[in-house]
Design a protein that fits this description.
Length: 315
């Protein structure tokens, strides 16, 4: 073989290797760009077994306060990266985690496996209606805005589980002005979901939630008090107490449900929980956005402020 031919073969080999290397670099770059790109994911959430739609499921981008909520028909839209870890949850169902690229047209959740403990049920005629528990004050020392969910710990003064008949939340209407448009933001009726938690320290709140299905009411402009009648749900206040929570979910714009988000939070924040001060303990908590970390409510230098939330029980 001549020296010239050998040199040409070597050059071709080097050229081929460089082309392969360039292709691999391009492929790796394109793949990483695809993973890092924020795109719109949409679909519906259904029961894995029955295939019935699951209304108002929550989607949380793990490690952030960003997320969204599905509508009444299970439909959701979420902007996220393919590499993001997304937590999907709903009352009565097992929480699921998946990567952004795995969010598909249909997401199936499995129903929670409920371990029932034995409770002695007293007949209605033998029950005694007990006074409201929690912060039953009608005094308003202030309101607290900019929250996605608010909760109050209710102590149980009895040495037994007692049935919860009603849950009451006190709110105040706050009027916001749109500084850019120079006018007040239009009023919306906001959907509020009731949650009752055993514990706020767990990362999977579905496991802690004593409520096993969506209990949702509409909070309108004229409402200052929201009462959930849940006696028929047979939910008991444990001996150790529990946290009652009001979760602001979104509002209806005509036929379209608009979930809570950073873009429209001002509309939802027109409703703020009322609080009063000078209690023996500070038992109130809140969450901002879709983040899973609860924060202890402390209002300025005022001692022991608590939201005006309460429950009525029978024993």
């Amino acid at each position: 073989m001549s020296t010239l031919l050998l040199r040409q073969i070597i050059k071709l080999g080097v050229f081929f290797k460089l082309q392969v290397l360039n292709f691999l670099v391009y492929f790796a770059f394109a793949h990483s760009s695809l993973i890092a790109q924020t795109t719109l994911k949409k679909g519906i959430v259904v029961d894995e077994n029955t295939k019935q739609v699951i209304s108002f499921a929550n989607f949380i981008v793990k490690g952030t306060s960003f997320g969204t909520c599905g509508n009444e028909f299970g439909y959701f839209e979420l902007m996220c990266k393919n590499s993001d870890t997304v937590i999907v949850s709903c009352v009565g169902y097992q929480q699921m985690q998946m990567l952004g690229y795995q969010l598909k047209d249909t997401i199936g959740l499995n129903a929670s496996v409920e371990i029932l403990k034995e409770i002695t049920v007293t007949s209605k005629k033998n029950r005694t209606t007990v006074s409201w528990l929690g912060n039953v004050s009608n005094k308003r020392d202030g309101v607290f805005t900019a929250v996605k969910e608010v909760a109050l710990f209710i102590e149980n003064p009895y040495n037994e589980d007692v049935i919860i008949r009603k849950v009451k939340f006190s709110f105040s209407k706050i009027r916001f002005d749109d500084s850019e448009k120079g006018k007040r933001i239009s009023n919306k009726d906001v959907l509020v979901r009731l949650n009752i938690y055993n514990d706020l320290a767990v990362t999977n709140y579905n496991l802690s939630n004593l409520i096993k299905k969506n209990i949702i009411k509409t909070l309108s402009e004229s409402d200052k008090v929201m009462v959930f009648n849940i006696e028929d749900e047979q939910i008991y206040l444990p001996k150790q107490g529990a946290y009652i929570s009001a979760e602001f979910m979104g509002y209806n714009e005509g036929r379209k449900f608009v979930p809570y988000s950073e873009e429209n939070k001002t509309v939802l924040f027109q409703f703020a929980p009322v609080f009063s001060s000078k209690h023996q303990k500070a038992n109130s908590w809140y969450k901002v956005g879709y983040e899973q970390k609860w924060k202890h409510f402390k209002y300025g230098g005022k001692p022991f402020s608590n939201f005006n939330f309460s429950i009525e029980v029978e024993k």
